[in-house]
Every structure is written in C-alpha cells, then in structure tokens.
Amino acid sequence: MLIIGIAGGTGSGKTTVVNKIISSLPAGEVTVIPQDAYYKDSSHIPPEARQKINFDEPAAIEWTLLVDHLMKLREGKRIEMPTYSYLTCTRQEETVSVEPTDVVIVEGILVLNDPVLRKMMDVKVFVDADADERLIRVISRDCVERGRTPKMVIDRYQDVLKPMHEMYIEPSKRHADLIVPQGGSNAVAVGLLTDYIEARLRKAKQKFC
Q1: HSE-up of residue 35 (Cα within 13 Å, Cβ side)
Q2: Per-block average pLDDT, block size 10, for the chain (209 residues)?
Q3: Contact at 8 Å (CB) between 9 and 169?
Q4: What total of structural domains would you count in the chain?
Q5: Beta strands of the chain (E only): which ranges?
Q6: Is residue 208 situated within a structural domain?
Q7: Residues 6+ apart with CB under 8 A from 96
Q8: Is 29 exposed, middle or buried (0-12, 13-18, 19+ CB in 10 A)?
Q9: Closest to 128 in 3D by CA, of 172, 163, 63
Q10: What is the C-alpha to C-alpha distance for residues 49 and 51, in angstroms, rounded to an integer?
Q11: Strand pairing of 79-85 and 90-98?
C-alpha cells in the first residue's frame, strides 16, 4: 500500500490535485481519507458556541483515530470512517465503510503537521497557491456549501484562517517531498506526481509476481 499525504492551505486546490490523480489511475486503486472527517465531535457544545471553534489548528483533529484507521487499512482491514457536518459542527452517526486499496491519499490542510501521521506517508505533497486565490475559492465554497455570507467568510479569514495558515499550515511545507505551485492547475507537477505513483505501483506489483 502506498500512503500519500496531500496538504496545503484552505482553497489551495488540494481536491483538484486529488481528483486528477484518481482520474489518472485505474478505477478502484485509490482511496481518499479526508482529514475533515476526523474533526473532534462538538455535539456537547452549545450550537452558538460551535461557530467559534477553530477548525484550522491541529487540536481540532482526532489524530489518534486517523492514525489507527490508516494502520488498519495498511494491515488489509476495513474501517468505518466517521462523517462530519459543517452545518451543525458535529460528528454524524453515519459512517463510511472503506476497504484497503493500493493507494491511500490522506488529504487536508494539517496532514503534514502530525509527526506520527507523517512517518506513515510514503509521499508528502504540499499544494501551494497565492493567498488572494485561496480567499476567492473559500468565499465561493463556504457561501454555497456551508451557508455563510461573504462577510462571515472574510471575517473568519482575517480572524482565523490567515493566522492559522501562517502558524501551522505554511510551516508544514518544509516536510513536503513535492510542492505543487499554482494549485491544481499545475499540470506538469500533477503529471510528475501521478507518474511517480504509477511507477511505485508497478514496482510493488512486480515484487509480488
């Protein structure tokens, strides 16, 4: 199993990179584990207080569960991945059954921050993009998908996203094996990453033939 970590700022184009990798590989060979599914449950906190939770710091993630699930997948075991609602800021009762595959992509803004998780990764990628481009994407996404107004998004960007990016996300770039500038629009970098994954998979399959 090849474990790939893909990090980068909010709105940097991580999902685009992931989707391009998936589309370039045979169907059924890639599993995506989103960091966001492992946000700690906040159902015990009053609804009005949940809106003030800082989701952009490492303390918001249940890293031990994420690591445990990755270990199980690497052992060939199925996992029940949690689901999280951004509308209610709570973990849902429903889970998603995930089977082990040849490639597992762990994607999220903070996945290069946890040292235990980093050691499990065969390839570490950081998707980079200009701050103004990221902000535009975040405004478009959060207004449509998360029920926020443009002002709410901008206020959150200034109060939380920007300082957390500078404190945690940008420094994690130094752990990356590959930096993808210009986000998902960088066809050359995405192509090189895909070629590398395919080569590793071929080598692994030849080893067991």
Answers
A1: 27
A2: 92 88 86 94 80 86 97 96 87 94 95 96 92 78 71 81 92 94 85 87 71
A3: yes
A4: 1
A5: 2-8, 30-34, 79-85, 90-98, 103-107, 123-127, 178-180
A6: no
A7: 37, 80, 81, 83
A8: middle
A9: 172
A10: 5
A11: antiparallel
pTM of the model: 0.87
Position 40 in a domain: yes
Residue 147 has a pLDDT of 65
**Within 83-186, where are the H helices?**
115-120, 131-145, 150-156, 162-164
Do 182 and 128 contact (CB within 8 A), yes or no?
A: yes
Q: Which two tokens stand for residue 85?
A: 């609602």
- Residue 207: inside a domain, yes or no? no
* Among 61, 55, 42, residue whose Cα is nearest residue 165: 55
pLDDT tens per residue across span 20-37: 888 888 888 899 999 999
Look up the domain containing 32 and give its range: 2-202
Identify the CATH number of the domain in which residue 36 sits: 3.40.50.300
List, for residues 125-150, the tens digit of each pLDDT value: 999 988 778 877 777 777 766 667 77
Query: Is 106 strand, coil or helix?
Result: strand
Contact 106, 6 (CB under 8 A): yes
Residue count of the chain, please give it.
209
